[in-house]
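Example record

One chain of 403 residues, shown exactly as stored in the release files.
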Amino acid sequence: VVKKVTAVILVSVLSLTSYRPALADTKQDLSNANDAKAAIEKKLQDVQNQLSQLNKDKKNIESYIKELDSNLASIDGDINSLGIQIEDKKNEITQAQEMLETVQQQSQEQYESMKLRIKYMYENGTDSSYLNMLITAQDMSDLLNKAEYINKITEYDRQMLDQYAATEQQIAETKELLEADLTSLEQMQVEVEGQKQALALIQSTKVNELQKLDNKSADAKAYQAQLEKDKKEQEAAILAMEAEIKRQEEEARRKAEEAKKNGTTPAVTVPTYDGGKFKWPTPSTRITSPYGDMEDRSSPHQGVDIGAKTRGVSGDPIYAAYDGTVTLATYSSSAGNWIWINHGNGLMTVYMHCSKLLVSEGTKVKKGDTIALMGTTGNSTGVHLHFGVRLNGKYVNPMSYFG
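Predicted structure tokens for this chain:
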């Protein structure tokens, strides 16, 4: 749409070289060109807002991915730590099993030694009940439980067997605890691995989202570059139209001077700016948006916005800043009801967003004359006057013209 509008305006400008349109037609073309430029600037502002939001979203996702990286690194550390603990626990269980087998072996050896001693006692005439006890005992525990024969066993054998039995029980209990710890650690490892997989999935999703945002940013920047190019073309078109208006006005001036020399009444008079100070264009002095670069705008503000004396209330008078001739007084979709006043020597003042126009094209005005009423027409977000100054086709800082 922007390209089509630009193309149409450019065609009308290029055609100026082949014929000389009426001043009113050229002014209408200029109004259309300014509308097209305003539309481009609005799109530029929208793109800038989109890029700002995309950059904000990218920073949020990048920060989240960084946090995920940190969490994944921490989980990897936990997994490694658990792996070491599991291996240590397995080693402890192996050692406990080896100790248990050793004690069981020592206990069995002690038991065998005891049987040899009993046999020796029998062979040397000791009571045959020792042999009967040995033969009928089911195992070592059964042997020890036969209380009537305990007093026949030497004190040393008894202490050693008790010690082996206690040690065996302690090691068995320790092994059981170690195996429970191992089971717990392995379960923890499974859970942490699950957490890692979940975080890795989220991270992958966020990386994909970041890539999509990067693609959108690239597209938006390309569109922004195209709009900037269109804007420059539009500005060139506007300059060409203003030059044509100036040429026609200079021709009118020349004709007026010739008519004066010939003693006839000139049909048109053209003002000449003499360098005087401007009158402030409205009773309110509350500036809501200054001239120049602003953080929330994609391009410099080409004028000064002055708010209503009473916030939100239309109708404040708007004054001509200096003597001149009204060259444009019409409605624009972007500027609303607006006025251009030619002060001569390439100097013009611009008044936008008026609620009502009180002058028309060709009207001669004096400094301080009421030319319109303040409003919020066109592309406006509140009651105010956008006051601009153009010198030789370019906007300049209006504040330098006030005393």
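Notes: The chain has two domains: 1-269, 271-403.
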